[in-house]
Amino acid sequence: MIKAVNLTKKFGDFTAVDSINLNVKKGEIFGFLGPNGAGKTTTIKMLTGALKPTFGMVEILGMDMKNKEIEIKRRIGVVPDEPKIYEHLRGYEFLEFIISIYKLDKKTVKSRIDDLCNVFGVDYLDKFAGEMSHGMKQKLMLISVLMRKPEVLFLDEPTVGLDAKSAKILKELLKKYAEEGTTVFMTTHILEIAEKMCDRIAIINKGQIIAEASVTELKEKYGQSLEDIFLNLTASEDIKELVEEL
């Protein structure tokens, strides 16, 4: 469902993503972990066609991103780390805008929107986006994607800004969708989410994938918790020493 071969992105002399390879299967929840600036968001942007790679190949749903970009974008869903919504639009106008772009059946989608709004507690569709908090915008962005039931979901830090109830609902909903065949590719800094949700994870650091396996396999290999494994692989300094110096 998601394939990347030697995927590379350079910005001048700086290599943000360095020859990474990915292969994510149908119905899998795949966690993409890494410290700030490791290349996670850049990778998602390349996988979803928002950023052209310097080198390498991307295939989504068996289609080459170079030749089938519009068809791929029609069938995937993307929730970015920062919900970008036109501030002069009301919530319902934003959803209508998305419905028109994807040429969706309004009657069918209306019932899905009502269900999702009810579940996530979204009762502010008449508000302007500019009046909404980050969490409110995040819920609206989630609804605009989930209402389409895309075959592949890309989520960049999806729980940031969500209240505890909404975050829990989202996690359970993603599990349900995966069981029904949706492929989920997500980044998160919350290792507990990755440990409980993801079938497999990859850890990226300085643009390179340094580990890829199921959580169970990683724990068996390193004999540590996921948090300790992650820190040992990505942190260059001893955390206790840093704290002592403060």
UniProtKB/TrEMBL annotation:
Superkingdom, natural source: Bacteria
Signal peptide: none
Alphabetized InterPro entries for the sequence: AAA+_ATPase, ABC_transporter-like_ATP-bd, ABC_transporter-like_CS, ABC_transporter_ATP-binding, P-loop_NTPase
Any one GO molecular function term: ATP binding
Chain ranges of the ABC transporter domain: 2-231
Keywords tagged on the record: ATP-binding, Nucleotide-binding, Transport
Protein family according to the UniProt entry: Belongs to the ABC transporter superfamily.
PANTHER family recorded: ABC TRANSPORTER ATP-BINDING PROTEIN (PTHR42711), ABC TRANSPORTER ATP-BINDING PROTEIN NATA (PTHR42711:SF5)
Name of the protein described by the UniProt record: ABC transporter related
Provenance organism: Fervidobacterium nodosum (strain ATCC 35602 / DSM 5306 / Rt17-B1)
